[in-house]
Design brief:
Helix content is about 30%, strand content about 30%. By secondary structure, the protein is an alpha+beta fold. It binds adenosine monophosphate and glycine.
């Protein structure tokens, strides 16, 4: 069986590592892939959003299954196109991926189906948005409607910051058409937990919980990043909270999407916040999270390929999805300067030594492999992931792994897993 995975970050490396363990022994391709992925799969130089080239490659190489991992090709309709061409693809169709692609859509969905979330207003007109922020209370949250590489959300502490955010999104078009409309919402306080779920539109199977560290520096200081470290499980996500989420958020979302004629088949990511008055949804993503996937999939005991196929065939209820009763921690090693500007092309040493330790795997995010050596090639470079009996054990092992690796200007947080 031949599988093509679309994407090329740490998340895709973790997905491929999981698929590579399948008893079905698939031959794996990845487009575009990265240095680490090239050790497990044949990397193909096609951009993740190039739907035509991806379809052509799948046809020419008799790919049996394509897994679309990143948000933008999903929102652009890559899965729809594959299906129209008679090819099998894993991931939601565009009409369901809109749950991530449009924050206006997701907020309206939650309002209509009484799914708990922050109170909000939508503006398509710059002046109305400005006059609203002049009269609202602070902090407040300003969000570009569409995909903005995780940068379209601004927490404004006062009127000046909110006006600047509205101007940046709606007038300067910092995120292009993603900023045609803004959502301005109530600021919620509480700890955030991510729950990814497998769903075929009939059955909802949440994965083990995870937490993401977003700020660049220790103690949650510095700029927001795409995610600088993760751990699973969350200490906050108890069985009671899980039951509340299942009843009030997860199943209602699946039913709501069906009701709207937008059945969601794939991985649905719930970004949750534990507020004083219950769990609320901060965001939906239509895919695996990055770097949440790196700590969730190593804990999966069931064959991932079997799960993917069952979701496509809407037979997820027939699969018993099992998890190890352990913990995982992923420490991201970033290029100095990230999330602002940084240099690329530095040689990385010690990955093999780190991986020779027990229970350590190093997922590559931004690397290339040349003549058997790895070089930095992005802001987030590696995700050093350890599995342990509990979080403390996993933290200790992960940092032991980190200590073996180096490259110029390497930066990482020393407090991943402590929250
Ligand atoms: P999003 O892209 O919607 O996930 O937002 C990115 C991050 O902004 C979230 O992970 C939160 O940390 C923060 N955020 C978003 N919306 C809110 C809100 N209503 N209240 C507090 N924090 C928020
Ligand atoms: N780590 C957050 C995301 O994947 O969107």
């Amino acid at each position: 069986m031949k599988i093509l995975v679309v994407g090329g970050g740490g998340r895709e490396h973790a997905i491929i590592a999981s698929l590579a363990k399948s008893p079905k022994k698939p031959e794996i391709f990845c487009a575009p892939g990265n240095g680490g992925i090239s050790q497990l799969a044949t990397c193909v130089d096609i951009k993740a959003t190039d739907i035509d080239a991806m379809v052509r490659f799948a046809k020419e190489n008799q790919i049996d299954l394509t897994v679309v991992a990143p948000d933008d090709p999903l929102v652009l309709g890559m899965v729809d196109r594959f299906e129209a061409e008679g090819l099998r693809a894993f991931g939601p169709r565009a009409n369901a991926a809109i749950i991530e692609g449009s924050k206006v859509f997701s907020k309206e969905l939650m309002k209509k189906y009484h799914i708990p979330t922050a109170k909000y207003e939508v503006f398509s007109d710059y002046d109305s948005a400005l006059s609203y922020v002049r009269n609202t209370s602070y902090p407040t949250v300003v969000k570009a409607e569409g995909l903005a590489l995780g940068k379209g959300v601004i927490i404004a502490n006062n009127r000046e910051e909110a006006e600047a955010a509205v101007r940046e999104i709606m007038q300067d078009k910092a995120f292009g058409d993603a900023g045609n409309r803004v959502v301005i919402e109530e600021f919620l306080t509480g700890q955030e937990v991510s729950v990814l779920a497998f769903t075929d539109g009939k059955t909802m199977v949440p994965m083990v919980s995870a937490q993401d560290h977003k700020r660049a520096y220790d103690g949650d200081q510095g700029l927001n990043t795409g995610g600088i470290g993760t751990f699973s499980p969350s200490r906050l996500y108890t069985a009671e909270i899980h039951a509340e989420c299942m009843e009030k958020i997860f199943l209602p979302t699946m039913h709501a999407m069906n009701q709207e004629g937008r059945t969601f088949q794939g991985v649905l990511y719930f970004g949750l916040i534990m507020t004083a008055d219950g769990v609320k949804v901060i965001e939906y993503n239509a895919r695996f999270g990055d770097p949440e996937t790196q700590v969730v999939l190593p804990r999966l005991k069931t064959d991932l390929l079997t799960i993917f196929e069952a979701i496509i065939d809407q037979k997820l209820s027939e699969v018993s999805v099992e998890w190890a009763d352990n913990a995982a921690v992923c420490v991201v090693l970033a290029s100095g300067g990230y999330p602002k500007s940084y240099q690329k092309g530095y040689e990385i040493t010690g990955i093999d030594i780190a991986e020779s330790l027990d229970d350590i795997v190093v997922y590559h995010a931004g690397t290339i492999c040349k003549d058997g050596k790895f070089f930095t090639n992005g802001g987030r470079v590696l995700g050093v992931t350890a599995v342990g009996t509990d979080l403390d054990d996993a933290i200790r092992k992960a940092y032991d792994g980190v200590s073996k690796i180096s490259f110029q200007d390497m930066h990482y947080r020393k407090d991943i897993g402590i929250k």
